[in-house]
Specification:
By secondary structure, the protein is an alpha+beta fold. It is built from seven helices and four strands. The protein folds into two domains: 1-29; 67-175, Tetrahydropterin Synthase, Chain A, CATH 3.30.479.30. It is 45% helix and 22% strand.
Amino acid sequence: MLQKIILSIIWLTLAALLVLLIFYGVSTSDFKNLKKYNEEDYGIGNVRDNMHNPSKKKQEFAKERFYTNRVTVKSSTMANLGDFTVNIAGDKKLILNISLKYKEKNKNAWISTGAAKNEILAKGDILRDAVIHTFSNSNSARVSNHRMKKELVRNINAYLSEGEIEDVYFNRFLIQ
């Protein structure tokens, strides 16, 4: 009998403690900030608009990380043709990013006129097409050898009159 009384007192104490905790939680809560279901729906557009503006550095980094087909000139001797995804023989694809080291063809010029830079920017789509045609229908062994790099330089130079490609650099080279 004594055990039943002790057990009942323990249960009553726990129940009273639970009621006090709930009462304390409700009394200290701020229910004024709760939203009703029928208020304005915050879709992804509103969420995106209400986000804090990221820094310019983060925006520039994000632009570089994602796939781009834009031709950019990095310096007076380097240009980037962007990202490529090319189907190669054997149901594989080649994912790459190409940078070009270039120079002006006019060797007598003391000062660079920027003609090669302007030509690369103007003929960017044509140069990208030359890259795609060079790698299309190639097998994975042929794609990764040095002769293919020389062939790529030759094919791109065929479209340039003011500038000349000296070397090709692969910033990304993945065969899947």
